[in-house]
Amino acid sequence: MNKISTPSDSASKLNGQWNRRTFLASTAGLTAALATGQARGATPVAAKTKSSPTPAGELKFPRDFMWGVATAAYQIEGAANEDGRKPSVWDTFSRIPGNTANGDTGDVACDHYHRFEEDVKLMVELGVRHYRFSIAWPRIVPDGRGAVNEKGVDFYRRLADALLKHGITPHATLFHWDSPQALEDRYGSWRSREMAKDFADYCTATVQRLGDRITHWMTLNEIPCFTYLGYGVEKMPFFAPGTIVKTKQEVLQTVHHALLAHGLGCQAIRAAAPKTCRITAVANFDAVIPVTETAEDIAAAKRAFVADKYVGTTVMPMLTGRYSPETLATLGADAPKVQVGDLKTIAQPLDCLGYNGYTGQYVRAAANESGYELLKLPKDYPNIGPSWLKFTPEALYWGVRMISDALGKKDLPMCITENGCATEDTVNERGEVVDLTRIMFLKAYLRNAQRAVDEGYPLKGYFHWSLMDNFEWASAFTMRFGLTHVDYATQKRIPKQSFRWYQQLIRQNR
Ligand code: FCB
Fold first, then answer.
1. Considering the entire predicted model, what is its pTM?
2. What is the pLDDT of residues 415-434, one digit of tens each?
3. DSSP characters for 155-185?
């Protein structure tokens, strides 16, 4: 996945990319596939534990399926200089002209720090029972290591209490890209092995203080995005910390240090937790989608999956305790330097794997050395919002299935920890936001999530990205991913039409 917005990324471009024909073509294909249950020519999926057959057209989810929404600290909180918080790398990065759309920063964002009670009420109205948010390391340990800022901890205590009061389970991500600037200044953030140790100490401090209220922990969000996209070989990368390095190997080493942080973080969480807790690793990768559901293309997709750069260097070490041999062969001398015992530390037992599923790539069998061919998307292939987000609803099904099948992790529970799209959401004369594109997107993606569940894959929940429009990193406020519209000038929240749609889906659980 290339989570980089191209200059053509702007919500207004969307109109030109969608016309009646492409829309009908994509939905017609979808409807046909749904009607047959599984595409013709498909290899039957191994018999799985299916409880009761779902009546045709009735795409039910299990009673205990977790419906939620997701956000992240730097994208919504604002209050950048309050109550002892010190700068993160994203505060610094977004201040450098040219790094973010319109030069915007997360200084205020959705002002959630002051409005969290109103935002919890929105969740109550929506009907979600689960909320994934992130804790800002620079609020808890402003210098990255050392003294704990109790006022920062208090904010998350208040937030967790507000959620629990309404029966919403807090799921806290300990790192969603906003690492303390102090550690960038001290040793260059993820370039140093010390970062992993400092992260684990921050986890200990946080879990000791909040573990009585928060029992669902997620370690690092999407390792590829703050390593591969935060460090550029001889050129400026698109994400913080925004460091230019000389070799690809240096980038791979940041990936390895992040994996170590995950492993040491898991150990720290378990040791510090005052109650039984659950730990989730949050991964992102482009799902590989077999272009036809034939045995040949499915086998090709499995081969492509384990050779994928993100899967091979992040998901596989965490889940299997080794880097993918295929990926290592491709990397050659650029492969990370691994010390004895590192991989054992990295592959900690997990309670769940979170998959941030947005986009995918199509693959088919090929008579070449690798046995597969990744298909180039045609120019007119639709994306919904940023250029990296291709409309590939099957990503949710195949993303989950590949973890189970290609990595042999059939018993590892999974959750979609993020999924959503950015659309042009204007407030109409009646004060409404009728975001039909998002609803179309959700219907298609969630049908695929349901298919995974229906076939017995261990998918346990879904967190929509995002509860509300927010600071979308380098695209800043130009990409609106929310179920709730935010007017950044007044901070007024307006639930969109998709909010009502998701509310109904949760109520009916189908
Ligand atoms: C994910 C990020 C999240 C948001 C969405 C659109 O990769 O984790 O913060 O930017 O993409």
1. 0.91
2. 999 999 999 999 999 999 99
3. HHHHHHHHHHHTTPEEEEEEESS--BHHHHH
